[in-house]
Amino acid sequence: MAGRKQFDMETALDAAMVQFWRAGYADTSLDDLSRATGLNRSSIYSSLGDKDTLFLRCLDRYAARYGAKYDAALSRAGADPLAAVRAFFDVTLQRIADPELPDGCLIAQSVMAIPVLSPAVAAHAMQAFGFQRLRLRAALKAGRLPDEDAEAFAVHAAAVNQSLAVLSRAGASPAQLRTVVDVTIDALAHALPPRG
Fold first, then answer.
1. Residue 24 zone, left/alpha/beta (φ > 0; ψ -120 to 50; rest)
2. How many domains does the chain have?
3. What angle do the packed helices 51-74 and 9-23 form, to 10 degrees?
4. Within-domain flag for 103
5. pLDDT per residue over 30-59, tens digit each?
6. Which ranges of the sequence are annotated as binding DNA (predicted)?
7. Angle between helices 119-142 and 147-169 (to 10 degrees)
């Protein structure tokens, strides 16, 4: 249609996701989203939705993108649970090391912002936050940890993973982040049943 500006939806959603990731939900205005996406306010509303709708889309996009990477890393947990959990943490460490991406974790930031989120968005953020524990628990059970231990280590590993994001925002070095991971891997190694 003549005169109608075209845009790439995927690029716009990625730009909005990075804006929310960098500044958080509360500190991201529609003007910020407009600058990030290159769309005016009416185009944002008509194409991407209101702020809550767009934020949910970005949260789902982030969870799907990194969730797929976490799932791939943990897929070999049945054969080698330690390597799988290390690969899981490597997904986070590689994301943190990428200079093109903001520090931290969009999901962790969203959970910390629950007081300013609408109830529907807060519930969605909590659900996304819980997926990490569920995927870790399933992987650890596949790695032959008893149910109770798998749950305990899943909670612990998910907490460590989120702490990596927080520590990176606070300026921790890659070596310090790797040490945090190594301590967790060592504890898991002692908890795993012997092979064979």
1. left
2. 1
3. 90
4. yes
5. 999 999 999 999 989 898 999 999 999 999
6. 29-48
7. 120
